[in-house]
Amino acid sequence: MSFVLHVDAARWRAAQDAAAARYPGVVPVVKGNGYGFGRDLLCAEAGRLGASTVAVGLYAELGPALDAFAGDVLVMEPFRARVHDDLARLDARQQADAGRGVHTVTSAVDLEALREVAPRARVVVEALTSMNRFGAPVAEVADLAHRADAEGVTLHLPLGTGHVEEISRFVDAAPDVRRWYVSHTSPGELAELARRHPGRELLPRVGTSLWLADPAAHEVRAHVLDVRPVGKGEHAGYRQRPLAPGHVVVVSGGTSHGVAMESPASAATPRARAVAVVEGLLEAAHRVTSPFTVGGRRVRFAEPPHMQCSLLSLPAGGAVPSVGDTVPVRMRLTTAYPDAVELH
């Protein structure tokens, strides 16, 4: 357990509590890698917050979430007959758990297929928003919700604000639907929607703003596994790249932990595009800055990270760590798979 996410439990939970207060009726999202904390831990935290429902991303996450959480589990991935029919046949498991699994549908065809394999499946309808990913068009939502005897409608919105009018179009088009699950909607927008649509239950699905609300409450740390001095012209690694004088530092943490596994940058501004160009040039020159901080400064990879460890190039003159020391790692927790999560 040498690549560890350390969590200040009191501070982390205080941030959760503050976020939950801003989002009444919150449906915590516990999908994927559990935002670095792991889905089981987040399910336990959702229970601590008093949530009645959590949301997972995939059918493969449904069973473990039912085991880890006592309430309802909403699968946000829409049911597709040719993709999920075998998984839906496990609905007997859901019924044994008091029918706590909730499916998402976007079309009459998939609804009929779901009813064939899981006649008693609980259902919500997803509507097609400007996100343009999954969903039924606005003109079809009311009819599909009626045919499905749906418990509600879900709306997945783009990042940012300015969603009130778009959400209102769907609510107005389906006046008989009482429960609406919404994502990426600010507390102010929720308050305005409640004012405009009295009698509707607006349930915010929240992940990042709940679990990662206070970045200072958690830190990934890696152990130093080896340190050795190197001179000019020496080489290291699989690719035998030349090293600058100083030290090679071997640290825990590699691609299996999500190190250097970044999603494509949006580069939406001139500055962001310039940064992307510079980073590309540095990568071409084998001078990539790592996410590891040694001696108070970010250091470069000696070569791309290995599966479970990384080789770092520490220039001469810097503070040299010892084997067994820990160094902080700056990385996105949504792509992190630590060996362990320790709450302090």
Automatic annotation (TrEMBL):
Gene3D superfamilies, A to Z: Alanine racemase
Coiled coil (UniProt feature): none
Domain Alanine racemase N-terminal: 10-158
Alphabetical list of InterPro entries matching this protein: Ala_racemase_N, PLP-binding_barrel
Protein name per its UniProtKB record: Alanine racemase-like protein
Lineage of the species this protein comes from: Bacteria, Bacillati, Actinomycetota, Actinomycetes, Micrococcales
